[in-house]
Design brief:
The structure is a homodimer. With about 450 residues, chain A is of the alpha/beta class. Chain A is built from 19 helices and 15 strands. Chain A has a six-stranded parallel beta sheet, with helices on both faces. In chain A, strands 7-10-11 form a three-stranded antiparallel beta sheet, with helices on one face.
């Protein structure tokens, strides 16, 4: 079976991401005949991504056509699927540079490693894309892969009729637990619902039996030694002292990006970060984050090199097998009615997660097939987790989402007043004043003028 | 019409409170024939309260009988109404002394003016009473007048089948706004729903017209002068700089105890308190609170003197007219089917306040008559208020209520980690360790042993 659809990748210059999607498309015969439009405003990157895509399809004899454009609205015409992975830029600053600028502004005012103000620029852009989708290709599925997935998807689904699916890789990191415990992954099952980057392992089995006791045993016997080791990978936080502390506090293991995100007390300074996440201070320390940026850049160069070096096979670097990335299988499920079970971020319609609004986006399992996306109900979470972790996280999301919807300065202030590092009103207001008057933030200044 | 009921006042030694109830009963002929049981463990106070009650009834020719007891369970037998106003004591410490002990413990660990840990002891005791009511007099109405009304009523209604009505005077303080604005109170109407001590003026009219513009005008023209005045009354916070700042942040005026409670930034030290609440630093500063305690003691002595001095009429001090206190009118409405509209704290059944659980106690208007208590729906609150103020307050309530339900140490820790003054885990843990090992807190130590 072959069904021809139009797939648009917004921000296709994210080379590693796009190359992965292209490779997954090439190995999914069900989508052969489809047209893929690569859209970005960075022409240089767009050029080599297009080259890479065309060469990969040729090598793998994949019946796909690729085109590129810098015109988003043009790209969206007739789209069936829109994949958005943009880290938005501001004037001359690239996405990650803009993040760093905003982080530096925050640090000047006493917010070590920033106050996540860059989420506002992301939300503004992603809402704009959702509005374009709603207007230009209202039947398209909008697959959101950029952060903040939780807030951006909630905002987009509240403000537009776009059919949004938020995706993330974080849930796969339960495998790291299995690895550290020495379990054979093929006998491990796990469930980890919640909010994006705030998911909790509600079920964990090894050969069908509850495997939480194995974690408890590891904590008693092996954890201290593990925490004392020399951490090599910046992303290695799943079994950190912070993650285990959260497990003790809330009663369930945090998964993936969750142990990075939860708990101001683990992040107050580099000393705290090292204590809780090991010698690199975790993903989000000045050490870990720099390693992440360096790796991004290294991979980008590598991909550019591969794309432009016609003496080598592209498919040698990008092995022709389906990756972990759910995007292409989901498109295939929807287009060809191939039923699959996925981990997605969708509105809480029908109270998939009890106790939270139906128009809040939750991360859950979903059955996807030709009839669409149907969330699978989440068993009641423990009260301690709801009360201790879910409600406060929901609260921050509502502050951010409503800030964008109502465009009121007071929301920004309320958000910063929730931050443990805010000592008084002046501190929060002086950060906001400098942030809103920085020329790179002109779009936000217009929204939030006092 | 006269219907004889049995009314039990638990903590009747709260002399000012009991005297007010007795006076209101004396002037409500509909309840003549009723028996009033004064219960307290403080025999000296109980003695003079009983004397006062009997004398008042004689002077006003009220057909009521009074008795006293120190045995709570005995008192509850056959009760139709149970009024609980207890500030619970611990061993040799009186209620307010226990509060001060816990405050001092908190202050030693960096929590200026305490961390409201005394709420846990209150909740434990009030739940015990509700359990007694459920067992001994399951048909009785339990009228809860002691703090924390929000958390205690939520806890009691979740854990027992007792029919609880929480009451507070705070909502009347909208009158202070009228007074400061120079409005004739008889043309003023107002609505102020929310959670107890966290209520917001959703509607404010003068002669039928929206009177919020008059507040806005006052802020522009008179506020600074008003804030610069010499504050005489510790309770005078309704039009404080803090209250107006909250109005700006959330979009509605906070009422009564609300401007005292909201916003850590107004309370960081005495300098902040004076800046936001004027020269006394508000109700809860070391200055304001001492004035409150002094006034309590002064009134207690005064009442004792009146009660014991048989040369004077009791009814001279307690004017024989119905007070603002809603307790006796509510009893009359229930007993004699006299329909009335009251401001009560009841479970959010049927989502009186949208967006919050049905088993959370909310403060709202209610129609009360022979058929019972029916809450009046609250119009949707502004998003900024829900997001900025209601969700975080709900969060703290859930932490406290669930702490009592599950009796897990982790809840205490999570509660303190939400406190802006907590700098690190050690600070919170060392406070909890000292608090739980203080011999006055032995009941709580049993509940929350690690």
């Amino acid at each position: 079976m072959q069904t021809s659809v139009k797939i648009v990748i917004i921000g296709a210059g994210s080379a590693q991401f796009s190359a992965g999607i292209v490779r997954d498309l090439c190995v999914n015969k069900g989508l052969y005949g489809s047209r893929v439009v690569l859209m970005d405003i960075d022409e240089r990157r767009l050029d080599f991504i297009e080259k890479l895509a065309i060469r990969m399809a040729q090598e793998l004899k994949a019946d796909l056509t690729f085109s590129k454009t810098t015109d988003r609205q043009q790209a969206l015409k007739g789209a069936d699927f829109v994949i958005n992975t943009v880290q938005v830029k501001a004037h001359e600053l690239e996405g990650h540079q803009w993040v760093e600028l905003q982080r530096r502004l925050s640090e000047k005012h006493g917010y070590y490693r920033g106050a996540r103000l860059h989420d506002y620029g992301q939300m503004a852009f992603h809402l704009e894309v959702a509005r374009d989708v709603e207007r230009i290709c209202p039947e398209a599925w909008l697959i959101e892969s950029a952060n903040p997935v939780f807030e951006a998807c909630t905002l987009m689904t509240r403000e537009t009729k776009a059919k949004v699916i938020g995706l993330c890789h974080g849930h796969y990191v339960y495998r790291e637990i299995a690895k550290v415990l020495g379990l054979d992954l093929k006998y491990v099952t796990a469930e980890m619902p919640g909010f994006n980057h705030w998911i909790w392992m509600t079920d964990f089995r090894y050969k069908g039996k509850d495997a939480y006791p194995l974690i408890n045993e590891w904590i008693q016997t092996n954890a201290e030694e593990y925490w004392a080791r020399d951490v090599k990978k910046f992303s290695d936080t799943q079994m950190s002292r912070a993650a285990i502390d959260q497990y003790k506090l809330y009663g369930l293991m945090p998964i993936g990006d969750t142990p990075r995100m939860v708990g101001w007390l683990y992040h107050s300074d580099l000393v705290a970060k090292k204590r809780w996440y090991g010698n690199l201070g975790g993903f989000d320390s000045e050490i870990g984050w720099q390693m992440y940026l360096d790796e991004l850049n290294r991979k980008l160069s590598e991909i550019e090199q591969v794309a432009l070096d016609e003496s080598k096979l592209v498919s040698h670097t990008f092995k022709p097998e389906q990756s972990d990335e759910q995007i292409v299988p989901i498109i295939n499920s929807l287009v060809n009615d191939v039923q699959g079970l996925y981990q997605v971020n969708i509105p809480n319609a029908g109270h998939i997660l009890k106790g939270f609004p139906e128009d809040l986006v939750v991360e859950c399992k979903a059955i996807i097939n030709g009839s669409g996306v149907r969330g699978v109900g989440i068993p009641p979470l423990p009260e301690r987790l709801i009360t201790g972790a879910m409600i406060p996280r929901w609260h921050l999301a509502e502050l951010k989402v409503n800030a964008m919807r109502e465009q009121k300065y007071e929301y920004l202030l309320l958000y910063l007043l929730e931050d443990h590092r805010t000592k008084n009103l002046e501190q929060a207001e002086s950060l906001l004043e400098e942030w809103l008057s920085d020329s790179h933030n002109d779009i936000l200044a217009k929204m939030f003028k006092k």
